[in-house]
Amino acid sequence: EAEVAQSPRYKITEKSQAVAFWCDPISGHATLYWYRQILGQGPELLVQFQDESVVDDSQLPKDRFSAERLKGVDSTLKIQPAELGDSAMYLCASSVEAGNNEQFFGPGTRLTVL
Amino acid sequence: DQQVKQNSPSLSVQEGRISILNCDYTNSMFDYFLWYKKYPAEGPTFLISISSIKDKNEDGRFTVFLNKSAKHLSLHIVPSQPGDSAVYFCAASEANAGGTSYGKLTFGQGTILTVHP
């Protein structure tokens, strides 16, 4: 069964350091999403890609976060510099297209900033 | 501003009984609703969905009810099984002017369901 892959699964870093997360969506899925889930809350959308283009990054803290999907397949989310409040689960999801509501999620990357 | 709310942080039920998870929303533009289930150390997995043109959708043991006038939806699990123990998230999306989905999901805070044997 096709799955969304994410790495690393866990990341511990010190504040002010740079971190990067990688996501490989299900093959053929044009739309890719990055969500952040703080403990005790639901996932919150950070950025949405349609192929290689960003279609929604309204909730992405652009002073420190960046995301790219250069070839319209896999994607990288970067934080530089990391802050204590960035500790959360970072989830990647993909769907066949933006109009398809069913999103398939990866296992997530648990980030701890010390 | 929490547009999707799950006011019960946790729910505990006995195996074989019904589990009812509730969700309220405030955004009138939401027109598609989904339930996701999440086990520890895994990403959310899609469970069941409902369009705003319906008031009920059923899939095996899982039924979702939508009350548009009350901006309320609920997930019923009958009968509940210990393997159903997980965090359940309600999510919603809205259509754009063209009638297709933006794709963005707005999630509630989640409800931890525990089903006791």
Question: How many helices of chain A does DSSP assign?
Answer: 0
Helical content of chain A (DSSP H or I, runs of 4+): under 10%
Question: Helix and strand string of chain B, N-terminal first?
Answer: EEEEEEEEEEE
Unreliable stretches of chain A, pLDDT < 50, 5 or more residues?
A: none
Structural class of chain B: mainly beta
Low-confidence stretches of chain B: none
What proportion of the residues of chain A form beta strands (DSSP E)?
A: over 45%
Q: What's the quaternary structure here?
A: heterodimer
- Mean pLDDT across all amino acids of chain B: 92
Structural class based on helices, strands and sheet pairing of chain A: mainly beta
Give the number of DSSP strands of chain A: 11
Sheet with the most strands of chain A? 7 strands, mixed
Instruction: Give the C-alpha Rg of chain B.
Output: 14 Å
Q: What is the count of β-strands of chain B?
A: 11
Rg of chain A, rounded, reads: 13 Å
Summarize the SSE layout with pairings.
The complex is a heterodimer of chains A (114) and B (117).
Chain A: E1 5-7, E2 10-13, E3 19-24, E4 31-37, E5 44-50, E6 53-56, E7 65-68, E8 75-79, E9 88-95, E10 104-105, E11 109-113
Parallel strand pairs in A: 2-11
Antiparallel strand pairs in A: 1-3, 3-8, 4-5, 4-9, 5-6, 7-8, 9-10, 9-11
Chain B: E1 4-5, E2 10-14, E3 19-25, E4 30-38, E5 45-51, E6 56-59, E7 62-67, E8 72-77, E9 86-94, E10 106-107, E11 111-116
Parallel strand pairs in B: 2-11
Antiparallel strand pairs in B: 1-3, 3-8, 4-5, 4-9, 6-7, 7-8, 9-10, 9-11
